[in-house]
User: Fold Aldo/keto reductase from Bombilactobacillus folatiphilus.
Amino acid sequence: MPDLKLNNHETIPQLGMGVFQMKDKQAFMDAVNWALEIGYRHFDTAAIYGNEKWLGEALEKSGIDRSEFFITSKLWPGNFDDPIQAYHDSCARLQLDYLDLYLIHWPSPGYDKAWQALEKLYAHQEVKTIGVSNFLETHLERIFQTGQVVPAVDQIELHPYFQRPELVDYLNDHQIKVEAWGPLGQGKTGVFDEPLLKQLATKYNKSVAQIILRWHLQEGHIIFPKSIHQQRLQDNFNLFDFHLRNEEIEQIENLDQDQPNGSTSTNQNFLN
Ligand code: NAD
Assistant:
């Protein structure tokens, strides 16, 4: 499992498990327990997902040492009035003394002040790393003007039909790592029927999902695909015994249709 180095010299496992839209407790516990058995140690949650408490329970019961985990959660805009309290509430639900990564979930009004609060948590070493999510260039420019710390990551919607090359170049230029949410297009974009990906899946004896996830890894994205199925969790973790050729990476880059799945990913009006 490759670790990537962040701009503050902390490291992050490049692959993890996301837990968005997992509302049934038993299914959640089963999936996280399978993930832990398979070897996942990086989990991406958020206060708004409503399952931090269950994740905390699963981590605690696993008996695995805290230092082996990389845990991310996110500040919801409804809590911009007191981000520090919101952070401590997330830690309490997760039964953790600190988070590895804490993100501003959306750049809703007040995100610049909220960032200053996250900077305080970071300065007091209460959180290992801070970052943002769903930020466009304009929001990052504002953070550069009003803040002190450059976000370590920007977690953005990104998949083969929505590759956002300009935003990705901008993030690379500023040493901000790309975390790709919805790396499989949330299973809704039709990408699983894409002939090129099917052809590559046959060639490498992998599934289309594995081809897409391998492409993300070789592009340098941090990913945490979600599944509640044991076999898919296993497949999504088995990405390290093959390598796409450079021309295949480029062919997948050519699939970009600038087509978001999440309706708000590029909506400046909503985001500002
Ligand atoms: P995803 O792209 O990971 O897609 C998940 C869906 O893909 C599953 O529900 C299933 O239908 C399908 N799938 C998964 N593995 C598969 C496999 N091996 N074969 C076939 N189909 C498979 O979408 P996601 O869960 O929305 O995104 C991943 C994570 O990103 C989330 O769980 C969450 O942690 C994070 N996220 C963040 C934001 C944000 O605003 N920051 C928004 C959405 C998601």
Summary: The radius of gyration is 18 Å. Residues 18-20, 44, 105, 133-134, 155, 181-187, 207, 209, 224-227, 232, 235-236 surround nicotinamide-adenine-dinucleotide (CB under 6 Å).
